[in-house]
Amino acid sequence: MSNASLLQDIASRRTFAIISHPDAGKTTITEKVLLFGNAIQKAGTVKGRGNATHAKSDWMEMEKERGISVTTSVMQFPFNDCIVNLLDTPGHEDFSEDTYRTLTAVDSCLMVIDAAKGVEDRTRKLMEVTRLRDTPIVTFMNKLDRDIRDPMEVMDEVESELNMMCAPITWPIGCGKLFKGVYHILKDEVILYQTGKGHTIQDQQIIKGLDNPEIDAAVGDELAETLRDELELVLGASNEFDLELFLSGELTPVYFGTALGNFGVDHMLEGLTNWAPAPKPRATDIGEVTASDDSFSGFVFKIQANMDPKHRDRIAFMRIVSGEYNKGMKMRHVRLGKDVSISDAVTFMAGDRAAAEKAIAGDIIGLHNHGTIQIGDTFTQGQAMKFTGIPNFAPEMFRRIRLKDPLKQKQLLKGLIQLSEEGAVQLFRPMRNNDLIVGAVGVLQFDVVVHRLRTEYKVEAVYEGISLATARWCASDDSKKFEEFKKKAHDNLALDGGDNLTYLAPTMVNLNLATERYPDVKFMQTREH
Ligand code: GDP
Fold this sequence. Notes:
GO terms for molecular function: GTP binding; GTPase activity; guanosine tetraphosphate binding; translation release factor activity, codon nonspecific; translation release factor activity, codon specific. This protein is α+β, with helices and mostly antiparallel strands.
């Protein structure tokens, strides 16, 4: 491909993920987004909830039983002259580690808020993670077909609780049974809502101009008057959209609509494709790599087991940071210092896996992984560099893993180390005994580990409770003081799956005391891969 057309293709990429609290409507919006992307003919097939239409991405019986989505998958579709990559994230908060790392692989996020509820916990937490990289955020206020809270109040809540300016792009006309549509502030037009069209792309019914009497005829005198009054207030009190502030993560454009009624999702997509950044640069240990750099590079942010029951393999998800992947090309697996030929990478067009002939910066490809790829691994065309900023997060839950058959100790250890390298769980081996302790951010991760130990490693294991509050990775610039610390704190120390020293704290009070007692030791909440 000529360089100019490659650069043009890269500039058209938009890679984003959705952040929201469970039930705000992420799955429903994903379906409608794909509908607009022509990825699927009829919306409604992304995720089945215990009914016959099981999602393609469901991979374990457990997941089906519980009706939650454990997987992170990728969907690619065209929209508005762009190629959009939507990275799905696990809906259940027990798998939030996967979500956190997926957020390192996107260039922007869509924040979905249930407008009847406002800002909720999970959204707050995920926004903290996007803040680490100042990711630009587009906001969708969902469920306008229900009685929502005062939209001005919900925007205020976003501003004060998430510390981000709001710039409304559309403004709702009524809500609940009286929801009539939105006024598009930048286009100065009313777009009317039609009920019962949730599964199709609707012909837009547009009325130009806020003073147009057709508005009064279409939505009723009362709502038309309220709309004009509210807008006067809103335009005076809120921020105007500002591209620079959006790109620096300080301001979010806000859209209103109903995902279920398939109204407003296209307005949001238009804004996102117009304004969200093309593939952004990423930091490495030897400086920044930009998307337009000639040679290929990428990093692995997630490893997924058994995506597709027909292929019992693991897929390593790689974000391409620069250049172009072509089928059969050689890549350098930097950590192993080995060149590998990749002929069978997968892309994620419309939820189905297809062999990727080509993929470029901003895209995600899946590499078949037989245990040699770890989260955080960098691939290049020969350069010895490593992408940074793909963290492990300190676990908050711990279990001791016990074997049913003591002869399988070696198998168990191998399985746990591999699962920890994949990021499925974190492993800790205390210095003072032979326990195997696994740590997780959410409790369901333990069930996944026991299930995978059984199916993939033929090890029957059980887990039992253990009273630990948290873990911190330890380091110090003062080697003498560090040695002293290792002796004195021996009974609280452990090695993680990658042999890094960690402090296991039975209580938060204990951790606080330890940080006071050893001021020369750093106790870190995240560890870079
Ligand atoms: P997720 O947990 O964020 O993925 O949320 P879902 O997309 O699964 O939606 C949660 C529930 O809210 C489902 O019952 C949806 O049908 C419903 N829902 C989603 N969007 C809307 C909407 O715009 N209006 C209404 N009334 N319900 C919605």
